[in-house]
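hey can u check if this looks right to u? its 663 residues, i copy pasted from the old doc so theres a chance i mangled smth
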Amino acid sequence: MTTSDDTGTNFTSFESMGNAIRYAAQFSDVISCSWGGIGSSSSFIDSAIDYATISARNGKGCAVFFASGNNASHWAAHQDRLPLTVGPGTYKFGFYFETSGSHSCVQEYCENLVIDQVRLLNQTGYDRVWWEDFEGGGPGWTVAHGGGATSDWALNTQPNLLLTGVGSTQGYRPPPLILAGQPGQWAELRSPPLSLSGNYILAFAKLMDFSTVGAQFQIKLLDANDNLLSVLTNIPLGWGTGSVGAGYISYPASYVNSVAVGACTDFDRRADYSQYGPQLFCVGPSNGGWNGVASTDTTGAAGWNSGDWENGDYYMGFGGTSSATPLVAGVANLILSKNANLTFSQIKDSLRLGCDKIGPRPYDPTTGRNDEYGYGRVNAYASITNAAADTTAPTVTSVVTKWGRGVEVTFSEQMGDGVTTPANYTISGTGKGTLGANPATVSWVSGYKYLLEWSAGEMIAGTGNITITVNTQVKDIAGNALASPSSWTANGSRVVHQISCGANYGQIYPFESERYWSGGVGNPYFNTVNSIIDNDGTPVAVYGTERCVLTAPTYSWDIFYVLPGISTGLNYTVRLYFFDNGYSVHPGDVQFDVYINNVLKLANFDLIAASGGPYIGFWREFPNITALSGNITVRIVPKQTWNQTWSAYYCNATICGIEVTAQ
């Protein structure tokens, strides 16, 4: 998935988002989504949320949290944070507004600008050096005007323009200069003089509701005599304009199976920007008050905060419902650390019962909620206290042979101590062949599944059974030791590798998600497969994904797989799966060479001629392949051909799946 920003511009498709949620649900207990407001609802996203909350976690359901949205008012969700460096001296800050004089508005203050909560932070970006909330009238602040203007910035007490997230009763706003119809009029609000030296960050809250162009709102650094030293920023007029979402929750947070999370401030009030409505579940602490939320950042210049301010590898200005949502999701994870057997509904109950009833709005005495705060502000300690303790012993629920050296073990719940220790697992039975008693490694696959892998030996296929026994040193995350059944029996296998090629979202059982590859592009098409030639029982979905090369007009790269764990002294059969996705439809359009262990097996292979047309799956098999330095390699080399479908020369190649079986 690729996104350019949080505004919806160039946002990825609904189908991709749905696939991403489904993929996450295979590996997660909790899913946090700090995005939304993408317009109309989508069946792709709805069905993915349903799958996650109903079917995931072996039917217990993932908790899926969504941000409620940041457009409940014209107060900006992300406040300005302006870095500055000054030598020893006395300074002021100027808030300068200049009109274009070109607006036809006839109502006073139809264009609105208000500032509040002005604070100067030290270099960490968090600790306050000086601040002003204007509740005392703003002593020491001065005003000036010019360019024909006749009025100044003044205190605002108009209720609909107050910063309610801090309980403000007044802020500062400029005069209605636009009404005069004369360009160049200006008014400036100036801070008291401050003795400063070093690095600082100037932060403030602002409300902007403009549609005028050509006007200016600048933040200036002044000397003690009000002379301009520098313009810290020139904020585009119109920033923050647009429709507001007061009274409704953005989609997908509004969906019935989503958990909608709003934001509250460090004043225990709903943040002004936080969208609200009947679907709101709760609120989480975020910005909109005195401070933002501190978060870690990618280290060095690659991070959001790449300078010397704000501790460099941290970001102190995170906020919005995008910040509140992962915080609440984190509390849900804490609840599951106490009891991993809780269902999605029980997780919500623990959160609901733990919420603090903050804010000035009354809560319904029957439901315990209101539309602005949901059930209240999340409380981690209270939520964990309300969660029932886990006293259920885990068990082994299935064992599946994956290939000749791999076995997948599934437990009844989320596991903890000892689960990845190889010595805690023993294989027995005639099907174990030459495998050692204990696996070499144990790794988590997804959900409650773990993969046991051996570094040497082979199983016996067919009627030879294997039994995996897990000892009581393996415990769940609550510390409960494994109970009966602690073992499971399955048939042996000679399959060494089964790989679904391309960037598919999750495992297509029994094929593994793609690995060991280089080159090409993975595509999760999930196309409808009309038919399969000589169907060997491979899941149809394997044909619907691919790793491909499509470049014009010259050759770019090969598709290359290096498949490890191949024993010497044995012969193997390699089966390759192919499918034409309909992008090209004529024989000759897609041709490539196939090499196995650097030996040419298929020359100028014509994909569509071999299948007989698009949307038809088929396979090719190559026996008696031996190990090459402990590996088997598969290389797909695209050939340049005239593509009749697109009337141009293309280099094209594709592969959907690979199976390697010991003979």
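Helices lie at 14-27, 43-55, 321-338, 344-354, 380-386, 540-543, 607-611.
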